[in-house]
Specification:
The chain is built from twelve helices and no strands. It is mainly α. The protein has one domain: Orthogonal Bundle (P1 Nuclease), CATH 1.10.575. Bound molecules: zinc ion (ZN).
């Protein structure tokens, strides 16, 4: 009996932390932020490290399971912002990744206004925008998701930092108005979230891992959106090697 209880606890921990550990792997996150022109790109995997100590408070910012498989709307994104950095297993069991992107930017603005060092909030934002295009973070965490999560997370990890053009070739301009920034951002987050969840359903229907090309298209959406956010804050600083390759 004791053994059975211990085994059950181990299983629960495994399931919990398997989910928390899942995300694009580190270099993939770095590559997205670098392609977007973030000067702190080398920090963009740090929000996954933060989960080790902050646990659910941080982890719920990294996925949105969307169990009902509904269309993500800009309004839904804005409604999730209040849940940023909160973990309520009963009311928020699906996570709130789309809202966390705007939550991080509100925190950035707040710290800026208080005269604090605020740049780490942009690192969080860049990381969440990266997670936004990971298809298995935007669909139910079911048997298919658990089985294929790790393989999808690392699909381009080995080479992507050395091959930035694999992301930049899929980048495009996203316009976020100065006077309608948050509404425009919510609209773009919702658009990309819907593309991403649909890719997730496709992978599930075909019972397969995404291809490297599908991953690079996804990462192109993330880098494009983060670049637009950085441009709004007048922060883009493309590294010379990426600039030269364009
Ligand atoms: Zn993450």
């Amino acid at each position: 009996m004791k053994h059975r209880t211990a085994a059950l606890v181990a299983l629960i921990l495994l399931v919990t932390f398997a989910h928390q550990a899942g995300a694009w792997h580190d270099k993939t996150h770095l590559a997205v932020c670098r392609a977007a022109g973030h000067d702190l790109w080398f920090n963009c995997a740090a929000p996954d490290i933060a989960k080790l100590k902050a646990h659910s408070r941080e982890a719920y910012n990294h996925w949105f399971n969307n169990i009902a498989e509904v269309e993500v709307t800009p309004r839904m994104v804005l409604e999730q912002v209040e849940r940023y950095n909160k973990a309520n297993r009963r009311l928020d069991s699906e996570g709130h990744l789309p809202g966390a992107i705007i939550g991080a930017l509100r925190a950035y603005k707040k710290d800026l206004q208080r005269g604090k060092y605020a740049l780490y909030h942009l690192v969080y934002c860049g990381h969440y925008i990266g997670d936004l295009t990971m298809p298995l973070h935007m669909i139910a965490y079911d048997g298919f998701n658990k089985k294929h999560h790790l393989a999808n997370d690392g699909i381009v990890e080995e080479t992507i930092l050395d091959e930035p053009e694999k992301i930049t070739q899929y980048m495009y301009e996203i316009k976020l108005g100065d006077n309608s920034f948050e509404d425009d951002l919510a609209r773009e987050i919702a658009r990309i979230a819907n593309l991403t969840r649909k890719l997730g359903y496709k992978l599930r229907a075909e019972n397969r891992v995404m291809t490297q090309q599908e991953a690079c298209v996804q990462l192109g959406h993330s880098a494009s959106l983060f670049q637009a956010v950085l441009r709004h804050y007048k922060k883009p600083a493309p590294p010379p090697d990426i600039q030269a390759e364009k």
